[in-house]
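Exercise 7. Given the encoded structure of a 220-residue chain, write a plausible sequence.
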């Protein structure tokens, strides 16, 4: 069915519950603990951490509660997501989370709005649900705003060397492209690592996660 011309742009593939301003993402409820655990094991525990595409904000509050010495800068181009991030932060009374930013990673000038230098940049489940320009901008920008030794953390489904890692990821890739031809599962080795290397970021760690997702850590 065609959408009305002024329908809100689709930003998530799941039905989200709402309570006050807080949005609840079923996928974030499933993956926030494994992501937090990998983050604690392999990412900085203090300093300034920028999140791009925070969505409901459930990941950032989970990470901020676990890392009280870090200061988080979450954000999303979607206003309802920004309202949810602020509502989750207030609900939990977390003082190490800044008000949400409106960064669009596809815009080359997002680095001008970022607090720099940063100890980490994080983006969870974004680059396959956005045009490839968002991945290009995210990674180039991370190379510019991270301090030497800073880390870029990506989470999501990836193919490896041109091959899907599971039939479910191949089907997911097809369904993403059917919804929006510019979306799709990205190839870690062929698409993402070359962008990272161009931005001065070295692939440090690839961690297999539940449901055929990967956590990927790059070092500046
Ligand atoms: C599937 S949601 C993931 C949200 C959250 N990270 C999570 O895992 O629950 C994808 C998010 O990417 C955001 N997004 C899409 N294009 C973007 C862009 N160019 N720059 C920054 N964020 C973008 C959307 O607004 C949406 O909140």
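Solution.
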């Amino acid at each position: 069915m065609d959408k009305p011309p002024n329908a809100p742009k689709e930003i998530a593939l799941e039905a989200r519950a709402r309570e006050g301003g807080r949005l609840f993402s079923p996928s974030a409820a499933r993956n926030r603990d494994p992501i937090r655990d990998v983050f604690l094991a392999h990412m900085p525990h203090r300093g300034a951490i920028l999140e791009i595409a925070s969505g409901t904000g459930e990941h950032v509050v989970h990470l901020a509660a676990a890392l009280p010495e870090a200061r988080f800068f979450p954000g999303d181009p979607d206003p309802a997501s920004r309202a949810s991030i602020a509502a989750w932060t207030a609900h939990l009374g977390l003082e190490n989370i800044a008000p949400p930013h409106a960064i669009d990673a596809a815009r080359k000038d997002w680095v001008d709005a970022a607090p720099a230098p940063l100890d980490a940049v994080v983006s969870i489940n974004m680059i396959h649900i956005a045009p490839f320009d968002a991945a290009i901008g995210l990674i180039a920008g991370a190379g510019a705003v991270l301090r030497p030794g800073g880390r870029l953390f990506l989470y999501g489904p990836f193919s490896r060397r041109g091959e899907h890692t599971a039939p479910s990821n191949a089907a997911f890739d097809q369904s993403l492209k059917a919804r929006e031809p510019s979306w799709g599962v990205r190839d870690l080795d062929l698409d993402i690592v070359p962008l990272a290397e161009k931005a001065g970021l070295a692939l440090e760690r690839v961690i297999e996660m539940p449901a055929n997702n990967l956590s990927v850590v790059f070092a500046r």
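Remark. Residues 11-12, 25, 27-28, 52-56, 59, 76-78, 81, 104-106, 124-126, 129-130, 134 surround S-adenosylmethionine (CB under 6 Å). Students should compare their own answers with the one above.
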